[in-house]
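User: Some background: our group keeps a shared notebook of sequences we're curious about, and every so often someone picks one and asks for a predicted structure to add to the entry. Today it's my turn. The entry only has the sequence so far, pasted here. Could you supply the structure so I can complete it?
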Amino acid sequence: MAKKFDWDRVGLDFGNWEEEKIWALDLPVVEMDIADLIWHFDAPFWPSDHGERWAITPWDVIHEKEGTLNEQKNMEHADLKYPIDILQNKDRWLILDGIHRLAKSYKLGYSKVNVRMIPREKLSEIIVSDSIELP
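Assistant: Of course. Here's the predicted structure to add to the notebook entry:
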């Protein structure tokens, strides 16, 4: 599971955000191809069942690998009625909220998901600190 990952590719270079502040944004919902977001499945965003931080990827969870039971349950309980919140960063769309929903949608065979595209000028409304503690 825990393999070396290049976090610079992800683009978490603008600080840490608060999900509740994202949810409060009044943004339109649009449909997007899952293929445009699938790159997230390579990043170890989630902790293992043993508490190791940044240890498992959405692919690990989708394929039900050992040590992913907690995240499998989170994915199973993800409510697809809520859109995925994304931000354009480093020339691609970055998910700020909704990776479990994306993984569940993929596992269910969907080709499209509902998203809300957060404009960069809204960052000041959702950022709560200047940095994210990455491995």
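Suggested note for the entry: The first helix runs from residue 19 to 23. Strands lie at 16-17, 30-33, 84-89, 92-97, 112-118, 127-129.
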